[in-house]
Amino acid sequence: MKHKLLKSVALLAASTAVLAACSNSSSSSSSSETSKELTIYVDQGYEAYINDVKTSFEEENGVTVTVKTGDALTGLDNLSLDNQSGSAPDVMMAPYDRVGSLGADGQLAEVTLAETSKTDDVTETLVTSGGKVYGSPAVIETLVAYYNKDLVSAAPKTFAELEELAKDSKYAFEGETGKTTAFLADWTNFYYAYGLLSGYGGYVFGENGTDPKDIGLANDGAVKAIEYAKTWYEKWPQGLQDTSAAGNLIQTQFTEGKTAVIIDGPWKAAALTEAGVNYGVATIPTLEGGKQYSAFGGGKAWVIPAGSKNAELAQKFVDHLTATDQQKALYDATNEVPANTEARDYAVSKNDELTTAVIEQFASAQPMPNISEMSTVWEPAANMLFEAVSGKKDAKTAATDAVKLIEDTIAQKYGN
Q1: What are phi and psi of 303, to 5 degrees?
Q2: CA-based nearest residue to 189, from 246, 248, 140, 259
Q3: Whose CB has fewer CB within 10 Å in the chain, the N or C terminal residue?
Q4: Listed residue (321, 347, 331) closest to 53, CA to CA
Q5: Whole-angstrom Cα distance, residue 83 to residue 109?
Q6: Which string of b and e fits 330-363 if b means at least 16 CB within 10 Å?
């Protein structure tokens, strides 16, 4: 394995240095003065945090940590070329859904999960592919429910309550008779709709998201969920079927006080706060029969590019970043929920509604599949939902057609 190979090389180099020191004290002095450097690449929003927590690591390890900033996804897209050219950073942050595929493609070194990282089963699954670990969990995310406190006194607990709310004439959508904006969700976006499908028994891949030959998006539960989604689209404004503009419509209706409840991610909070909405955050209401809305569990991990010039030291820095104290500092600096379970408890103690809702919802979340085949799912699954809720196809046909397309694409691209 890459990491073990580099570790062996490092140990050999250390032994050579010791022998040289025994024969030549001046050589030892020169060697000890050799500087060690690490480069970490992050979004600009993490720059202040890294500069704050790197100091103790630098002092303890005699190393200089250089922080470079840029768009995280662009950095990951460029990783193959950077690894080949020798310009890859030593540590990066990557969304969980990119970790497995980048690792399987040979772009990431294997990572050892330190005991001090306090990971759990879900986050460990998110960074594991083919039995190998390619990242150390940093942040957890999942969808939550936002509600307007000026319109409802408390967050609805069930979808049955949302259905009753939709009967209230004060949420009637101007210009479209019989349409309501009481509750809105962007379900033609598969990321947002998945919790609905999984709540009814649908799934992407079998064996906890690792078996691309077992696609559960056209089973009875998935079809029932799609049919239920269609009952909402019959109530919603036509604009919710515009896959490119539905998200903006939802945000506008909510910020203008015309919508009581929406489903969105923790990243939405900043925009709602800036818009001056008196909002609360809660777990997503339960489905028929008390079924959980099991949205994708996601977030970000610290990863080590395969082209790191000092993978062993990079591993130590990753361990430093995922330890409890640094994870607490991450929460204080960004309000993002830490993956470290001890730091997560610390975050809960701050009594922040968003933090509490994310953590509670994450408990019922399903790890997003991080195998390469997941890239074939997004577009067909989104089209499946659009075709069904718009009436172009019945739910069963739309689902069956989508699964067939996913299967054919996987066979063509991966030979499975």
Answers
A1: -130, 160
A2: 246
A3: N
A4: 321
A5: 11
A6: bbeeeebbbbbbebbebbeeeebebbbbbbebbe
The model carries a pTM of: 0.87
CB-based burial label for 96 (10 Å; 0-12, 13-18, 19+): buried
Report pLDDT for 165: 97
Show the CA angle centred on residue 177, arms to residues 176 and 180, nearest 5°: 75
Residue 1's SS3 state is: coil
Helix or strand (DSSP H, E) at 28 = helix 25-32
> What distance in Å separates the CA atoms of residue 239 and residue 242, rounded to the nearest whole number?
5
DSSP, res 44: G
| Residue 166 C-alpha from the chain's centroid | 31
Residue 131 exposed, middle or buried by CB count within 10 Å (0-12, 13-18, 19+): exposed
Coil, strand, or helix at residue 293? Answer: coil
Q: How confident is the model at residue 7 (pLDDT cuts 50, 70, 90)?
A: very low
The pLDDT of residue 2: 38
Q: Closest by alpha carbon to 395, among 226, 173, 194? A: 226
Tell me the three state secondary structure of residue 335: coil
Helix (H, G, I), strand (E, B) or coil at 286: strand
| pLDDT value of position 35 | 55
